[in-house]
Amino acid sequence: MRKLTMSELNRMDVEEYRNVEKLPIVIVLDNIRSLSNVGSFFRTADAFRIETLFLCGITACPPHREIHKTALGADDSVQWRYFKTTVEACECLKNAGYTIFAVEQVENSVILDDFIVPQKSAYIFGNEVDGVDDALLPYCTQAVEIPQMGTKHSLNVSVSAGIVMYRIFASLHHLLS
Cα(105)–Cα(9) distance, rounded to whole angstroms? Predict the structure, then answer.
């Protein structure tokens, strides 16, 4: 066994990435405090060809050295928009015909393993301390929950994003040419 070289990985460059088809998925960052977490969202969104990131409220925006450091340049390839409030982002998504889901532990949430991923959908990831803001739940069709069996009641938000984005990608990658 040997690791593949960068040329063997046959990765596209930033310009090719910007022009290639993406999954019809928007990831919404609801007041994410950590710039490292924001950078991780960019890097994961790039890996799974997510259409757009919505950065809301206190979530920092590129260009920023700390975001760039964690994103490893994905902040240059992934499309993003900033909204002053996450409610504004949700209204924009509803008007554009997206189905919105909270990634949160709430009554009647669906476990990620059982979740059927729809096309043209958006996923809200909440603040590292408070989770998804309660005011956003009425915009959501449903909540998706990552099953956990340990002593803690939550995962790091960027870890959660990686798990959920992979599940979305695994369900919808057949849409990409």
Answer: 37
Residue 144, phi then psi, degrees to nearest 5? -110, 135
Taking only the tens place, the pLDDT of each residue in 57-99 is 999 999 999 999 999 999 999 999 999 999 999 999 999 999 9
Residue with tokens 């596209």: 12
Strands 142-145 vs 50-56: parallel, antiparallel or unpaired: unpaired
Contact call for residues 27 and 41 (beta carbons, < 8 A): yes
- Name the 3-class secondary structure at 126: coil
Tell me if residue 116 falls in helix, strand or coil: coil
Provide the token pair at 145: 């929950």
Q: What is the pTM of this model?
A: 0.97
